[in-house]
From TrEMBL:
Molecular functions per Gene Ontology: ATP binding; protein serine/threonine kinase activity
Binding site for ATP: 54
Boundaries of every Protein kinase domain copy: 25-283
UniProt entry keywords in alphabetical sequence: ATP-binding, Kinase, Membrane, Nucleotide-binding, Serine/threonine-protein kinase, Transferase, Transmembrane, Transmembrane helix
Class in the EC hierarchy, top level: transferase
Higher taxonomy: Bacteria, Bacillati, Actinomycetota, Actinomycetes, Bifidobacteriales
The protein, known as: non-specific serine/threonine protein kinase
Length: 476
């Protein structure tokens, strides 16, 4: 089934436009076409590099001009290695708007799936972390893409996936209908005929990663609808089904299912949280992770747990889960090596950042604070929109029956601040998606074992978050 974009449905096809003559550029050929624009390949004569130039199909059209201007401005305003680079924009001699882009010789993910079939799991996770990083940067700049899909993910000359086509992007706070592509749109977008927010983008990115593994968008894959109306009906009323591929692990399926939840509140709170979940799956499956590439955000997830013995000066004992097929002898050797490295890192890095809370049975760890101290001093890392959001301070936790109450303080309270918190499972990774609260305290059920841990981030009204979550463990 071809993708249908709501804001272009019903338009009459136009004749193939003549490639414009642009000073300093030599026409090479056609890259692609859509209902509103053609994309041509040109050679920039001054640099002898190829570029892609998107040219409107209409002449002297104010709406088209505004859309092209928005796309060029948005894509140039927050450069990122996984967002297609914009080199310039203008109006042709016959009144058509155009934008000059980085040329992506690898084509689109859609084209690659059509030619080569579904992607391997490890490459899909790699792309997912990179694209989620770019998406988070857009959201942090208050921009929602609104049309993430396989045809809008292009492969650059460096082999990187890059988000293209911000033509219907809009402000995070602008909920007016602007357009969407039904196979990749979440239920709330279909129900409102186009309105969506950053959580809608997270859904669409998850649908894109799903298609990389399944070959089709989630509901086309699961239900094989025969019409657009039937597809929309499936998205609105039927569940997303797991991918029927034996080599797609359950850990990956779970991450995608959460991001594809019908209720936006059940999805990952931010694109960087989605990236963290993908990193967790990478570490669990392959022992490595693709870094998150956003200024002010740690590239890798913090994986630190402090047990009571550690506070007394003994080394923590924690080991990463090993694949079941490894032989016991190999596991033993790997664990011994990991423990040795953990010991060195703990002594050199973590111990200086441990602060005893006021409660005698809790330990607080704020790893990777980029120089920020636990008394609330901000690091000097910024995100282009002001001072970096600090981590919570004065964390403590105490057992009370079958539960644990955690409290913290905000070193720089601002109007609209909220707190994203999640329980950490066995000191290894967040066992629950982040939940929001307006309070500086939360009560959770006690975890199995000797300690219960949570991580907490401050969330500003503009959705910027602490560059590093603060972690606290209450000990029985």
């Amino acid at each position: 089934m071809p993708n249908v974009t709501a804001h272009t449905a019903g338009r009459k096809p136009t004749a193939t436009p003549t490639p414009p003559r642009l000073k300093g550029y030599r026409y090479v050929g056609v890259i692609g076409k859509g209902s509103t624009a053609y994309v041509y390949r040109y050679r920039q004569e001054a640099t002898e590099r190829d570029v892609a130039i998107k040219v409107s199909n209409t002449h002297l059209d104010p709406k088209s001009g505004a859309r092209f201007s928005t796309e060029a401005t948005v894509m140039a305003s927050f450069p990122h290695p996984n967002i297609l680079t914009v080199y310039g924009a203008g109006i042709t001699g016959d009144g058509r708007s155009y934008i000059i882009f980085e040329y992506a010789p690898g084509g689109s993910v859609k084209d690659i799936i059509a030619k080569q079939g579904a992607y391997p799991v490890d490459k899909t996770l790699d792309y997912g972390v990179q694209l989620a990083s770019a998406l988070y940067l857009a959201h942090r700049n208050r921009i929602v893409h609104r049309d993430i899909k396989t045809s809008n993910i292009l492969i650059t000359a460096q082999g990187l996936p890059a988000i293209a086509d911000f033509g219907i992007a809009t402000s995070l706070y602008d909920h007016r209908s602007t357009g969407y592509s039904p196979p990749w749109a979440p239920p709330e977008v279909l129900a409102s005929n186009g309105s969506g927010d950053d959580r809608s983008d997270i859904y669409s990115l998850a649908a894109t990663l799903y298609a990389m593994l399944a070959g089709k968008s989630p509901f086309e894959y699961a239900y094989a609808p025969r019409s657009l109306d039937e597809l929309v009906e499936c998205i609105m009323h039927k569940p997303v089904l797991p991918i029927n591929r034996p080599d797609v692990p359950n850990a990956v399926q779970q991450v995608l299912m959460k991001a594809l939840s019908a209720d936006p509140a059940d999805r990952y709170f931010t694109a960087v949280e989605f990236a963290r979940a993908l990193q967790d799956a990478q570490i669990q499956l392959y022992g490595h992770a693709t870094p998150v590439t956003v200024q002010g955000i740690e590239p890798y997830p913090a994986r630190v747990a402090i047990a009571p013995a550690a506070v007394q000066g003994n080394l923590p004992t924690a080991q990463a889960p090993a694949p079941k097929h490894r032989k016991p002898l190999i596991i033993t050797a790997v664990v011994a090596a990991v423990l040795a490295v953990v010991g060195i890192v703990f002594a050199a890095v973590i111990m200086p950042n441990i602060d005893r809370s006021q409660h005698t049975t809790a330990a607080v760890v704020n790893p990777g604070m980029n120089g920020a101290t636990s008394d609330g001093e901000d690091s000097d890392v910024t995100d282009g929109g002001g001072t970096a959001v600090p981590s919570p301070v004065e964390l403590s936790g105490a057992y009370a029956g079958d539960g644990v109450k955690f409290t913290w303080s905000n070193p720089d309270p601002q109007d609209g601040d909220k707190y994203a918190w999640s329980v950490i499972n066995n000191g290894d990774s967040a066992s629950t998606g982040a939940q929001l609260t307006d309070d500086t305290s939360v009560s959770v059920p006690a975890s199995d074992g000797a300690q219960t841990c949570i991580q907490v981030s401050i969330v500003r009204q503009d959705r910027r978050m602490s560059s590093t979550p603060a972690t606290v463990c209450a000990v029985k």
